[in-house]
Design a protein that fits this description.
Shape: flat
CATH topology of the largest domain: Rossmann fold
CATH superfamily of the largest domain: P-loop containing nucleotide triphosphate hydrolases
Number of helices: 21
Distance between the termini: 85 Å
Number of strands: 13
Strand content: 5-15%
Number of domains: 3
Largest sheet: 5 strands, parallel
Length: about 475
C-alpha cells in the first residue's frame, strides 16, 4: 500500500516531509514482529500510528489490546498486565485474565510506558525476551505470542539517566524508535487538518460551512498548539457549533486559543502569539488584553493587602484575655514572650490555658512590637482585661523629702480604716478602623516617621500604608 492510500484509509492528513517520513517508517516495520517505541508529545497521534502498525501486520485479524499504563494504580498494574490467581490478594475471588493473555496472537499497545513502576518493568522485560510470564500468585508460567508497541510523551533516554526507567528495558523497547513531531514543527499541515475536522463537524452537526479570513489563517499557523492535533480538533468542533457567521476572523478564534501549559507557568491571562504591528483590530485587542491584565493584577494585590491586614488584626485580638501582674500592667513594659506573664491576682496559674500565639504564621516580632503598646488593667475581683491602646505615661516620682516618723497603725487597723475602691469600669473596645489608625500612628511615632520601617513592622506594603494614611488625612 502506497503512502497516499494509507493516509486516505487511516485519515492521516499532512503533506509535510516530517509526517511523510513517519508514515514511511511505519510502513516498513508494520509487517514484522519487531518491537516499536512511539515517542512524541501528547496529542500528536501516537495511537493512530500504532493502529497503522497493527492493521498492516499479519495480526490484523485479531483485536489490538490498548493499555494505558499511567491510568493503572501501581499496586494493581502487575495483576492487570499478567493476570492473577484466585486468592492471590485480598479481593481476588476468581481467576483474572491479564492483558497479555488477551493479546495472545495479536498486538498489545502500551501507552504511557514511561509511567510504569520499576517492579512491573522487570516482568515486562522478561516477557519481551522470552514471551513467558506467570500470573500473580501462580507458580506455573505461560507462553504467549504478542507483538508489543509502546508509546510515551517523555524522553525515555533522559528518564534512564535520571534513574526513573530501566536501561535494559529501554534498549529492548526502542528497537525501532519512531519520533512523531509536534504540530508546531509542521505548520504547513495545520490548515489542511483544521479544514478536514471543520468539514467533518459541519456535516455531523448540520451547520453551515465556515470560511477562515486571512488573519484567522495567520493566527492558526502562528499559534504554538501545545495540545497538538487534539487541541486543533477541539477548536474546529467549537467553530462548527458556536460560530453563527459564515466568515471566521482572528478575533473570533482568539478567545478559543488557550495555551494552558504556558499560562500556568506565567502571569499571562491568555497565551496568544502577537500579531504584526500595524493591524488596527489586532493592536486594539492587545491593548484590551493588557488593560484587563493590569486590572486583574491590581485586584489580586488589593485582596492580598486586605488579607495581611486581617491577619495582623487577628493577631492582636488573639491576645485578648492575657493576664499580667499589676506592676507590669502599670508600667506597660511587656517583654517579648507573654507566656511567662500569665498570672491571676499576682499568683501563678499554670493550669490556666495560655493564649495561642504562632510567631511564624502571625508575623513574629512585628506583632510583639505592636502588642507592647497595649496597656492592661488589673481588677481586684478578677483577671486583667485589655483596654484601648494608649501611650505610655511616665510614673510620677514621689518626693524624697524626709518627714518625721509617726506612729503607724497595725496592718489590721489599716485594713479596717481603708475602704476598697470600686474597680474601674472597663473602657469600650475600639472599632477596627480606630484600632488601625492608632496602630499606624504609634508605629510612625516609634520609627520617627519612617514609612518603610513602619510598613515592615505592620506587615503591609508601603503603597498600602500610603493609601491608609491618605484615608486618615481625609477623615
Amino acid at each position: 500500500m502506497d503512502r497516499a492510500s494509507l493516509q486516505e484509509r487511516f485519515g492521516i492528513v499532512g503533506e509535510s516531509d516530517i509526517i511523510k517520513n513517519v508514515i514511511d517508517q511505519a510502513r516498513q516495520v508494520a509487517d514484522t514482529d519487531i518491537t516499536v517505541l512511539l515517542q512524541g508529545e501528547s496529542g500528536v497521534g501516537k495511537e493512530l500510528i500504532a493502529q497503522v502498525l497493527h492493521e498492516l501486520s499479519m495480526r490484523r485479524h485479531e483485536q489490538m489490546v490498548v493499555v494505558n499504563c499511567g491510568a493503572i494504580p501501581e499496586g494493581l498494574i502487575e495483576s492487570e498486565l499478567f493476570g492473577a490467581e484466585k486468592g492471590a490478594y485480598t479481593g481476588a475471588v476468581e481467576e483474572r485474565v491479564g492483558y497479555f493473555e488477551e493479546a495472545d496472537g495479536s498486538t498489545i499497545f502500551l501507552d504511557e510506558i514511561g509511567e510504569m513502576p520499576k517492579n512491573a518493568q522487570v516482568r515486562l522485560l522478561r516477557v519481551l525476551e522470552t514471551g513467558r510470564f506467570s500470573r500473580v500468585g501462580a507458580s506455573q508460567q505461560q507462553q504467549v505470542d504478542v507483538r508489543i508497541v509502546a508509546a510515551t510523551n517523555k524522553d525515555l533516554a533522559e528518564e534512564v539517566q535520571e534513574g526513573n526507567f530501566r536501561k535494559d528495558l529501554y534498549y529492548r523497547l526502542s528497537t525501532v524508535l519512531i519520533d512523531i513531531p509536534p504540530l508546531r514543527e509542521r505548520p504547513e499541515d495545520i490548515l489542511p487538518i483544521f479544514e478536514t475536522f471543520l468539514h467533518e463537524f459541519s456535516q455531523e452537526y448540520s451547520s453551515a460551512r465556515k470560511e477562515l479570513t486571512e488573519d484567522a489563517t495567520e493566527l492558526l499557523q502562528s499559534y504554538r498548539w501545545p495540545g497538538n492535533v487534539r487541541e486543533l480538533r477541539n477548536i474546529a468542533e467549537q467553530v462548527a457549533v458556536l460560530m453563527r457567521q459564515q466568515e471566521v476572523s482572528a478575533d473570533d478564534l482568539r478567545p478559543l486559543l488557550r495555551d494552558i501549559g504556558q499560562a500556568s507557568a506565567s502571569t499571562d491571562l491568555m497565551r496568544v502569539d502577537p500579531e504584526p504591528q500595524g493591524q488596527g483590530s489586532g493592536a486594539g485587542s492587545e491593548d484590551d488584553l493588557r488593560q484587563r491584565e493590569l486590572l486583574y493584577r491590581a485586584i489580586l494585590e488589593m485582596r492580598m493587602d486586605m488579607r495581611d491586614l486581617k491577619e495582623q488584626i487577628g493577631s492582636l485580638m488573639s491576645n485578648v484575655g492575657v493576664v499580667v501582674p499589676r506592676e507590669v500592667a502599670e508600667r506597660g513594659d511587656f517583654p517579648g514572650d507573654y507566656d511567662d506573664f500569665v498570672v491571676v491576682n499576682n499568683e501563678e496559674a499554670p493550669d490556666r490555658p495560655r493564649p495561642h500565639r504562632d510567631r511564624d504564621q502571625r508575623g513574629g516580632g512585628e506583632v510583639d512590637s505592636m502588642m507592647r503598646d497595649v496597656v492592661y488593667e488589673v481588677d481586684e475581683s478578677g483577671p486583667a482585661r485589655p483596654t484601648r491602646p494608649r501611650e505610655k505615661r511616665p510614673r510620677e516620682e514621689r518626693p524624697t523629702t524626709t518627714e518625721p516618723e509617726v506612729a503607724r497603725p497595725s496592718s489590721t487597723e489599716a485594713e479596717a480604716e481603708i475602704e476598697p475602691e470600686p474597680p474601674d469600669e472597663p473602657e469600650e473596645l475600639p472599632t477596627l478602623e480606630e484600632a488601625e489608625k492608632q496602630l499606624i500612628s504609634q508605629a510612625l511615632e516609634r520609627f520617627d516617621g519612617n514609612r518603610r520601617k513602619t510598613a515592615e513592622a505592620l506587615g503591609i506594603s508601603e503603597r498600602t500604608l500610603y493609601r491608609k494614611l491618605k484615608d486618615i488625612d481625609e477623615d
